[in-house]
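pinned: reference chain
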Amino acid sequence: MDALHTAGIRFAEALQSGPPWLEKFWISVTSLADPKCVFTVCFPLAYFLDRKVGVSVLWIGLVSEWLNVVLKWFLFGERPFWWIHESGLASKEPVALHQFPVSCETGPGDPSGHCMITGAALWPLVTALTALASRRSGSLAVKLTPFGAYALLLLAVGLSRVFVLAHFPHQVVGGILAGAALGWGLQTRAPVARAPGFFVAAALALLLGSLALHSLVIAAGVDIDW
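pinned: its structure tokens
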């Protein structure tokens, strides 16, 4: 893994060596793509456009948030900002990297939550927009526009996470693939006819389940809080 991590550090160096104006762009992208925006921005907008799509965004966002935490507990995953010091790379080779306020994230980093949760939650919205575009236009370019924008957004989010040293490239790729797969798999299984109380109960069940799982893993001697 050291070779993969080192390659990721070099990629981050290349990103940070770009034009100065890109720094503000990448930091803005990583801030706007925070998973909480799924619930505070994407869900209300999707619900306003179509109730079923909005509920799907909420449900998939909820499940993907929980699953991302669980995956990080079991996959672990180093954080670039800390790894360059803990591995000794910074003392062995010249490393030209800049630190940002969002660089010092702690805890496991695989897969990227920004990429996974955003990619999963936006899937039903993108497919709904694609269906709408298909009904309104026969142009292939118009039909592919929503998924093209979706792909570009996830690419930008992934690059921004590497830029600020929050994730290695392979963690970002894993997050994007997991998010897209989760969105595709859960879209048709969203409980769109359920009452609001169901979602409160589901959120509570996921919270209690994660706390129980955390306690079991700790009791088994695995330090997932490293």
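why pinned: The mean pLDDT is 89. Residues 51-75 form the longest helix (25 residues).
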